[in-house]
Design a protein that fits this description.
heterodimer; A: 139 residues; mainly alpha; 2 domains; 5 helices; 83% helix; 0% strand; flat; B: 170 residues; globular
């Protein structure tokens, strides 16, 4: 598989709904081995981590009563939230300086993150706005 | 459990921008609407999923597990992956005809700011389980800066967050 081809499949998977790597496994599995390939790739990707994460969760629930353990895990979770913020900033590089795009991102953040409005309301409205703005070359 | 499955299946279909983009909605449902767990417990489950190797969609399995046991975990993960997997399978066949279509570029450009806003919202919600204060702002902003500006493995950033948590909340 050529790097260019890989990049294009990745781009497709990022704009389809669903976990990006999961989509990737389906598209590539399908390409090479059809339905069986897609299913195998997807399950292969999920199976081992599934048991890992449960092992860790069981271990945690064993110790969750301990205040220090809870403090550490809460710290990890907050840092994980920080990683999301860092990821968002990286994704925002192409829209730096495009004020209409920055304003749309800020509005989505304020409504969903701070205002706690449902994504099922915000997403369709934002998508429609963004679509028309992008078609007119404003985004 | 049925409610969980239906809701996650709907989330699956709107998860353009990946799982991080729907985290704020998942938290809203689980914590604010259904009150299956507290915001702190949600952030802690998310921490476990982040610390384990594997795709971040696994947090769905942990939420299902917390709500309805091991079967709940399987159902939640299936609901979160199934609908989008079917859609991907189906659309994957049209990829060659879509690849050079002008609307695809427009669509992708339109999606960037929305994804940025939603992931930012997810980070904010996860980082402020007890409301916004200087403790969590410090950990979250330091982690965000470390990811943005350095090439550190994110696991080290999570570990540093754990140490900071012990010092600040312990």
């Amino acid at each position: 598989m050529a790097p260019q081809d890989f990049a294009e499949v990745l781009a497709l998977c990022q704009f389809l709904p669903g976990p990006n790597v999961g989509n990737m496994s389906i598209v590539l599995g399908r390409r090479w081995f059809g339905l069986a390939g897609a299913t195998a790739a997807f399950l292969g990707l999920m199976a081992l981590p599934f048991f890992w994460v449960f092992g860790l969760a069981l271990l945690y629930s064993e110790w969750a009563a301990h205040p220090m353990v809870r403090a550490v895990v809460t710290g990890v979770g907050i840092a994980g939230g920080g990683l999301f913020i860092g990821t968002a900033l990286k994704l925002a590089k192409p829209i730096q300086g495009k004020w209409s795009a920055v304003a749309l991102a800020a509005a989505c953040f304020a409504l969903v993150g701070v205002g706690r409005v449902s994504l099922f309301i915000v997403l369709p409205v934002a998508a429609l706005l963004a679509w028309f703005a992008a078609r007119r070359g404003v985004l | 459990m049925l409610q969980l499955a239906i809701y996650f299946a709907l989330l699956s279909l709107i998860s353009v921008g990946g799982v991080p983009a729907v985290m704020p909605e998942m938290q809203r449902l689980v914590v604010d609407v259904q009150r299956w767990m507290s915001a702190a417990e949600f952030t802690q489950l998310f921490a476990v999923a982040q610390a384990a190797p594997g795709p971040n969609v696994l947090v769905a399995a942990l939420i299902g597990w917390k709500v309805a046991g091991f079967a709940g975990g399987l159902v939640a993960l299936g609901a979160m992956c199934g609908p989008s997997a079917v859609l991907t399978w189906w659309l994957g066949g049209y990829w060659d005809s879509m690849r050079d279509a002008p609307w695809r570029k427009t669509f992708q450009r339109a999606l960037v700011p929305i994804t940025v806003g939603m992931i930012l919202a997810g980070g904010y919600v996860l980082a402020t389980p007890y409301g916004l204060d200087w403790h969590n702002a410090l950990i979250a902003l330091a982690s965000a800066a470390a990811l943005y500006a350095t090439r550190l493995n994110p696991l080290w950033i999570l570990a540093a967050g754990g140490i900071a948590g012990a010092l600040l909340f312990g």
